[in-house]
Recover the amino acids of this structure.
């Protein structure tokens, strides 16, 4: 018989604990499922009009990251179609660092021009993060000098937090209270080489503290890694996103972003601060190296979207989004009002109220998600809203009216 | 001044060591670069005819994982185009577990039918692995009873080995000599709950030891996790791949595979042994949950390819591939001869000879990669070949002739 105590094999849980995560996470998911807000299958007419085939129920998506509505832009759809027809293949199915299509090279050049930085494409933003962060930890990105202490902002996106154990096998991993520059400076004083990992615009609202971070970079050589997925395309004259629009690139800064949110296509991109890193990462960044990259259709969609980012239409869409955000802020003032980002939280306090509000909204034709502890603090439950440029004014006004009347009657 | 010894922050390097990996890896890459075999940009006419625009140099790809040539099948290209035109969007940009397109649901159903198992799609096979393996380690996949010891076959693909540190935060991680059933049985005797992580068909040639593993599963409740990317589509009456074609699914078995290799499209799929895991993984499998899934174009390409897998054409393509493999084996007998898989190694022994052979082959119009230590044992350097169904007989014959004459003259 087996004499081992099974607890012998339990890991150290330094960075994660699935059991504990699931205790919280499953509760949130199953609550959404009970409310009929999970696993909804739809046909697409527009982001304002999704249709459940079986019931005919129609609703507007207020929880999509397609902030500019580019996911259904005819030029982007046609970009994908043209690329498929022109190349006559879905992909070459060989590591891109060996042989790659001129079409993908064109995209690299196009994104390099758009973001004024070497631009490495990837099959998703989180795959780029999974490939790159461990090489920052080991000291192979960000200049010679050995490993770096990796400091993760406590609110940084799951896609970065998920890679902590891999980084932790290369160097010391620490957590930092959200946007806490003093805490971060203390770490910079204590260790010679430090990297800070954060969102540019946070997925639950708000921004990073860019100015203070650049000051720490200047004074301590702090490496800055940003995922700016939630502001890419919607900010900056060419949609560079919040961080890129407000800094000059340098070898101690790296920005990744999703090309499947505001950008309206698929995949992800890493804007590099060091020319040398482009080939180095193509060769060595884990899944970037040996896994599939964005395929031909996605490359074509991205090329079309990049062109659109160079046209006056981008500014017009950004302006439309801004008007929708302003209108919403006027109707529902929150602590994020006026920050220009599309993610908003309508706080109702009580968890059950939040769930019921999201249920009622769905019944009335609007999909948005109830959020509560541990996503937000206890007693701060609410409904998360994501605004879009292609949200029609009528829809937005009647959505706000519906929320208002539901909150009064609650 | 800083008083800390920088070595304080060096990680334990239990599972990885970028410095050591790069010492080997960069040598291989830079050698390939010197030979002009890296970073080649091409236009696509067919897998047999890629063209370097600047020089007009044409060559045949003998290093593509598109084993059936489906990457340029007109029906698959049109599948992608039709999906884009029909849905009018690239994606909804919302977590699929919340709201997803009927098109993606159709693909789930189609793959479920093809593989006779619940089938979870993902943006890539390695993303599925990154999401699922930690939940096997923590004991949340594979039945109640707590964490499992994770045993990685020493030859398992990078995409699985990469996740060791994440698994290691949840449970004990061990390495197993390649296909060593005795070693594995000893671990099964020592610990009550064990999972084994392996390739079905290995990317450097050869197979897993399926029968022996199933025996261990029966006797010890061993969980089996396979990446069968290199045999998917090319084996099995419906292209289920080596493992799925030879076992019945059960809650202690999970198979992942790439849909971007033999399958000819994009993304990846997980064949699940437990119906309950489908929703559970959609909700909780890390990047599967919060990252983008396969987009509309890829979904359309996959749907078309799945249909093709149900037609007689699949058998015809498998047969064509088999004929090419047989011809090659006859011309260049190796230890893998007769195993039916498309990956072959032409061993030349000396590293420089291998590099020069791959250079000369490229000059003669054939791209294949030189492999040497640490990818293969010292003194066993050679050239890796990947055969395809769409490799024209003339090309294959003249390729074999070229290799022969180059080896004689060497």
């Amino acid at each position: 018989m087996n004499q081992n105590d099974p607890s012998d094999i339990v890991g150290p849980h330094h960075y994660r604990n699935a059991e504990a995560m699931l205790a919280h996470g499953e509760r949130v998911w199953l609550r959404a499922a009970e409310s009929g807000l999970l696993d909804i299958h739809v046909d697409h007419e527009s982001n304002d009009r999704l249709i459940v085939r079986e019931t005919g129920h129609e609703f507007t998506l207020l929880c999509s990251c397609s902030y500019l509505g580019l996911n259904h832009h005819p030029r982007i759809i046609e970009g994908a179609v043209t690329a498929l027809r022109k190349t006559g293949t879905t992909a070459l199915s060989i590591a891109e660092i060996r042989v790659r299509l001129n079409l993908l090279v064109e995209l690299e050049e196009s994104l390099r021009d758009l973001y004024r930085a070497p631009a490495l494409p990837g099959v998703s933003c989180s795959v780029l993060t999974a490939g790159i962060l461990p090489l920052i930890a080991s000291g192979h990105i960000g200049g010679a000098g050995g490993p770096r202490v990796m400091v993760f902002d406590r609110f940084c996106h799951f896609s970065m937090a998920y890679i902590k154990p891999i980084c932790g096998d290369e160097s010391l991993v620490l957590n930092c209270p959200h946007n806490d520059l003093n805490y971060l400076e203390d770490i910079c004083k204590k260790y010679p080489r430090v990297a800070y990992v954060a969102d540019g615009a946070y997925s639950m609202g708000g921004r990073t503290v860019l100015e203070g971070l650049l000051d720490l970079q200047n004074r301590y050589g702090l490496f800055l890694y940003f995922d700016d997925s939630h502001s890419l395309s919607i900010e900056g004259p060419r949609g560079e996103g919040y961080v890129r629009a407000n800094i000059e690139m340098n070898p101690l800064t790296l920005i990744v972003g999703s090309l499947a949110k505001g950008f309206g296509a698929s995949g992800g991109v890493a804007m590099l601060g060091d020319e040398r890193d482009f080939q180095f990462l193509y060769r060595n960044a884990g899944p970037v190296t040996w896994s599939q990259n964005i395929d031909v259709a996605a490359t074509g969609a991205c090329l079309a979207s990049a062109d659109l980012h160079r046209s006056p239409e981008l500014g017009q869409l950004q302006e439309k989004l801004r008007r929708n955000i302003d209108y919403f802020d006027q109707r529902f003032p929150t602590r994020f009002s006026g920050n220009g980002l599309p993610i908003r939280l309508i706080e109702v306090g009580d968890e059950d109220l939040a769930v019921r509000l999201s249920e009622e909204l769905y019944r009335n034709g609007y999909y948005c998600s109830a959020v509560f502890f541990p996503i937000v603090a206890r007693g701060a439950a609410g409904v998360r809203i994501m605004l879009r440029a292609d949200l029609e004014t009528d829809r937005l006004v009647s959505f706000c009216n519906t929320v208002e009347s539901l909150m009064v009657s609650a």
